[in-house]
Write a structure and sequence with these properties.
heterotrimer, A mainly alpha (629), B mainly alpha (562), C mainly alpha (116), A: mainly alpha, two-stranded antiparallel sheet, 23 helices, C: 116 residues, mainly alpha, Helix Hairpins, 3 helices
Amino acid sequence: MNALLLPLLALPAIGIVSLLLFRRARVLQWLLFLLAAGALVATAALLYGRWELSAGLSLGVATLGFRNTPLGWLFFAFSSGLTLFIALFSLSYNDRRHSSGVAPLWMILLAATMGIFFAGDWIAFLVAWEIMGWTSFFIIAHGRESSFRASIYYYTLSLIGTAALLAALFTVWRLTGTLDLDGSLAALAALWTAQPGAVTLVALLLAVSFLAKSALGPFFMWPALAHAEAPDDFSAYLSGVMIKYGLFALVRLVLPLFGPAYAGATVQGTPVFLYILGWIGGLTAVWGTLLAVRENDMKRMMAYSTVSNMGYILVALSVNTVFGVAAALFHIFNHMIFKGTIFLSLAAVKYRTGERQLHRLGGLAYRMPVTFFAFLIGIIAAAGIPPMSGFASKWMVIQSLFSRRMLLLAVPVLFASTASFMYLYRGLHGIYLGQLSPRFRDVRPAPPLQMLAMLLLMLAVYAVGTFPGLALLPIRDALAGLQEVIGAGGVGSQIPVTLGTIMGVSSRINLTTVSFVFLGSFIGVLVLYLLGKRRSRVEWLDTYTAGEDPAEWNMTPEQYHYAYRFYEPFEKMINPLLERLSLERAYESLARSFRRLSGSVARALSGGGAGVAVALLALAVILIVGVAR
Amino acid sequence: MHHEILLLALPIAVSFLVPLLARRSAAVARWIAFLAYLAALAYTLALFPSVMASARAVIVAGWLPPLGIALFLSPLSLGAVALVYLIAALTALYNLSSPGENKRPEGGRSARGVALQALFVLGGVGMVLTADLFNAFVFLEIAGISAFALVASGRPLQSGRAAAANVPVTSVEKKSAAAADSKTASAEPPAEAAPSAVSTSGSLRYLVAAQTASLFMLLGIGLLYSATGLLTLPSLVSHPALKSSFGLLTALLLLFPVLLETKIVPLNFWVGRAYAGAPAGFAASLSGIGATAAAVLLLRMLSVMGSGSAFAGTAGELRGVLLLLGSLTVLVGETAAFREADLKKVLAWSSAGQMGVVLVGAALPAGEAAAWVLFFLASHAVAKALLFLLAGFFAARAGTNRWKAMKGLGRLHPLAAGMFTVGALSLMGLPLFAGFWGKLGVLRAVFSSGGPAVLAAAAILLGTVAEGVYFLRIAHSLFEAPEAESGTPEAEREAPTVGSGKPARAPVPAGVLLPALILAAAVLLLGLRPSLAMRVIAPAARELVSPDEQYAQKILPSGASR
Amino acid sequence: MVQTALIISASALVLTGLFGVITRRNVIRILLALNLLETGVNLFLVSIGYAPGKEAPIVTARITGPISPFVDPLPQALVLTSIVIGLGTTALALAITLRHYRAARRLTLEETGHAS
């Protein structure tokens, strides 16, 4: 019973116990959750460097193997850190009014997450993957009908992913005879010359499964529903940790297939399969951004932003170099932190105001300053502006494209990255800037524990932005072991990095210096602001209207809000395109056809004599076919 | 006389004694049945050690096979018998309680109902134990007849409130409910009131279908006897092969009733109405006992037909046909369940889908999946019984069988709804629960046989997706809060009264809670420690895979196969 | 000869019964057809055991030697069981039909408007 196994087993047990015993005492459940998150961070600290550690859970018919790998450890450490901050937040968030009761299930989910990251064989991976699936379904739905619809949408895609995963699993088993993850992948990679079709099939099935989980390609629309409808603190976990599972699995399970043993066609140095994935990522990035621009609901907007960021990560992975993987991992880490910050600040806003629509908020910066700052730092990072961490990782992603001369793919990435500022700023202005609605005149700032969580996250974002090596150095060490598995040699095979500098193909940037420059300018501007002339407050509708009275046009203060239909001209431009290419409609009609099919099958089977006739007719046909052979 | 006959004698005794002893009070009948099943279960478990050491045949009435009837006690048959008695005991426990307002004992709970149920159990146990084909036919008939009667005895739930609660009820049921209301004004003996058209028509459809199928089996038996002069399964194992088309025809005819009982396409059109009309306790037995026993018999027959036996020439084609039928059943079952509004029908169609998986696994060559098929069958029996019992409880609380009307019941009875979710998740094949291992094992065997079996795998995977959606829909709607604005503190909301007029916080009766707990615990236990069951299942699978040495030779006197 | 005649009439009964079970709507007619089906199958079973020129399998004073001059008694035993099963089932079916009539006011098994 070593450090790997103990949390894996203890967490679900504690979760189930707290579900059964502490149903009334919700605070106790969340306290346990916080302790569990803390224990996980401690475990991460314990496990660092002990790469030889492994554990097996024997169930008689199968043994679930777990192994402490650097890659898995990275993901585990990042996600445990984020979970700890979220747990702090949740403890305060889940009071009597807002409690969602999902703490026990969340604990089981934490154990499943750990299982996914440390899985040593396919069965362990599958078990953890499935447990993650059904626990997250119940958490997202948390007993509300509207949330249920979102959750079942997410879970249906997840089930399709599972079907693909199972098919891949059994194919791998049949081809290589072993269930050990690393062993089977190595054996499979060696089959490129002998059975390219089979290996491609496995890669395709795995890709389908993991793209679905990470909302890439044709699966881009579930976060908008799920992240938005989930309990607000869980949205941070969803966007921060859970959506990364697919990408982790891609790095762990799919990229090793395209290592040195790859013997197929390449495009600009990267395998065709990965090149196509890269384009899927690029298009997803653009699509996510466009959809985010249209949104008026702050959680949905941020969900689409997450989708877009997943696109960047996939692009970075597609270059198939160590540098690319490092860029991807770095962006994953940064995204976890800044998206977590953003979602927690949104949760705090919702906690105090109950609102999610941008045009009903506004001016909250004056009432909730810490929340405002958290959101501000978050979106600066999300937009990729120094000195926050997002800049470094986006820069590295583009550099990794340059290293392969994949300039065409850089276009959508740059477009999406730049356009993201449109919706990010709108979010900021819509919620925090502008004028305070009379309804929220007495809104109090976020509770202290929530503020603490947000402060810590802000510090993390800024710290990594100033000292990128904080994240990149562990990443580099982790990837050192993977060098022979991923693309070898060339300019992308090392990750030159120091604590304060990032280096790429075309240049190097000392982010510490940049950060201090920004800090200096910020302090300068702050001084000017404080010394400058006073400003005056005005009412909402106290603005220039050329002598007309807005009430005559049936205008409400909300409609006149700065953020209402903020980008109407832009929307008018892209709406026709979005309408025509709506995948949601395709899925809807698929679901409808299936429902109709189900109805007719049920009706056909309930017919009386007709049923017997059909039965015997079918039997006769089978007999004739059978006898005739 | 061989004491093992007790396995069959106990249910017969119950069915004959109960009408005599329980004239006044149906409760006496229910207690007798419960205690008898408990005793039978204990007896079965006591037989286990000796049977695990060496399986044996019990010759009945002194006539040696292949002419006489022999009962075969082996890990497979005894394991199935234990499962049957477990579910029978738990269902009897369930019948001891009254989960709803139904003061009048519903069909399955009157003295006559108990007697019929005992006969059903007898049929199930018998068809698993016997080694003679005609004997199996008789036991199938016994089970069938009692099933028809019990299904027909179902009555509509107290639909007065259901009608008020805007649940569309068929005009016929409304009439019968009205008739019931007026009838109860007059002195009608409680057990006779308000027959349900759904139950009777379901029962009649089931009857006609099952009887036709059994007659086909009889035809098959006749054909088999005319060609080989044999009636017992073990003797077929080493018999020279029949002509291929004749063999195929005979095999299919013989399989008809078991395929019907296990709801295989195209013989499952009776499922919807029969299950909808059956009383809740019996629906659990029908699925947990009936389908399971029939499936074991099916596996036994397929194991004999598959080996180098009288059917050697047709084994390949038979496999192909069965693989196709199994895949179709999975697809049809899961698709039909998707749209159903009646919870019992959903569960029944889901059973059909699961049986399709069993058939696919059984149809694989060389019995690769034998052990996992058995595991899958056992986990299905336990989970399905759990779901049906809880469905009955929720239906009684909500006043209707429609699952949409049960919204929010989980908040009043979180333990019951939680156990329902456990059962549902197990059937979906999710880990931490029993169903995961069974499905994984069957899928693995299907994938490794390659060829056309891959299509069956695709069907099973598609079925899993559909299954997940509709089960989670139902499980979640149990937990849903009745519509309120977001942010309303749920603890301060009044516990809603849904359907029934009872104060909605009435606790779950022990008779429902106890069986459900035991079954749910079994599901979890098998999910976390599947090796516990494998100790019995592994030798059982060996019986199926090598029927010659593990089966035939233990029954027939050495060298005797005419 | 006799056997052929038996088999033909058995087949005729089976096919007629099957036809009736499949196509009739009225429950009573379905049950009648079911009975025809049963009778046909029973007849078929009897015909299996038939051997021309042999005696009925009843030991009387006339028969003294070994068993060989009998027709096969086993199918006849099967048929006896089957007849009894058929009787019981028919009785039960009619009782259920009576109950059905009380509930549904008619003798057919149509869908009464899918309640779901």
